[in-house]
Amino acid sequence: MSHRATIWAIQQRGLKPATKIVLWFLCDRHNPDFGCFPTQARLAEDAEMSISSLNEHLARLQELRLIHRVRTHDPRTHKRQATRYILGFEEGFPQEPTPESGDGFDGTEEEQENDPSPESGYGNDPGAISGFSAKPSPDFAESHLRNPETNHVREPLSKPVKEEEGARACAAISDQVFGELLDALGLDPAALPGWWQGWPPRLHVQRWHDELGLTEAEIVAVAEASRQDHPEPPDGPKALDRAMQRAAQRKVEDTGRNRRKPKAPPTPAAPPITDLPAFYAELVNGDRYLPVSAISNTMRDAMLARGLVTEDRLRERGIR
Fold it and tell me: Are 103 and 97 in contact (CB under 8 A)?
């Protein structure tokens, strides 16, 4: 947040309330040291309006020379990168729009009505690419164009905005750990491919730690092991997702085996009784309770015949 920027926004006069709200939230996202890079999703969330409506107010602010937008694309993937907003009070604010900055056109008004070119990719919209029916350029898919008639409801953010993700990734993954990972993969930090530059790969590595439960040492170890199957370094961290998932699964299985108690050996079964007269004679001669009905006449006679019990002992135990 920049107090100078928000005070400057409040001092502006002649703006519609919604337009001034957009300007204020834009200034609220300004950083005095690094500039202003909020996403449209974040601004729309702050101002409580649809992205299509937001673009209309941004175009109005740009027309009034209160803001200047600088758009860039990844030269290899042609993916839109975060737009930088230069505010009117900043020293770098340009005096006139230029074709390189993405604001305005270096030509006549008739040229602005032409189809988008491969170089510009915007068509007749000198501002944001959303909300116009221009044909998509060869470099950008039609999904980049938004129809304002189908965007009446403002949807909540489903993912953290880029600047917040970048701050969290830089704070979570240290340079030392990230450097060890690059070294394990055989990547040269001085000449990193595009997929390994900036904060996105650090955030991807952090997800291996948070969502899969891998430690930093385990992540580096898995990266080293992956080079045995794939000698060439991976194009990006996403190529290692499968290996990291397998390592996390093995870790869960190993933990489960360690926690599982060994089964106790089964209790040996009692040996079967083969000599019934001797078994009952032991009960008669003992002191344990013996029901009278437990000894049949046949069993009594068998015990007496073998001399296992006496008649006196039988009478004492109540057996006739």
Answer: yes
Stretch (H or E) spanning 222: helix 216-229
Q: Yes or no: say if 142 and 134 are a contact pair by the CB < 8 Å rule.
A: no
**Distance between CA atoms of residues 85 and 92, nearest Å:** 11
Q: Could you tell me which of 210, 208, 218 has the C-alpha nearest to residue 180?
A: 218
3-state secondary structure of 69: strand
Q: Tell me: the pLDDT tens digits for 105-160?
A: 333 333 333 334 444 444 334 344 444 444 444 444 444 444 444 444 455 555 55
pTM of the model: 0.34
HSE-CB for 318 with a 13 A CA cutoff: 8
Per the structure block, which two tokens stand in for 74? 């990844």
CA 245, distance to chain mean position in Å, is: 13
Q: Is 73 helix (H, G, I), strand (E, B) or coil?
A: strand
- Domains of the chain, each with CATH number or no CATH: 3-150 (1.10.10.10), 162-258 (no CATH), 276-316 (no CATH)
Across the range 182-209, mean pLDDT stands at 83
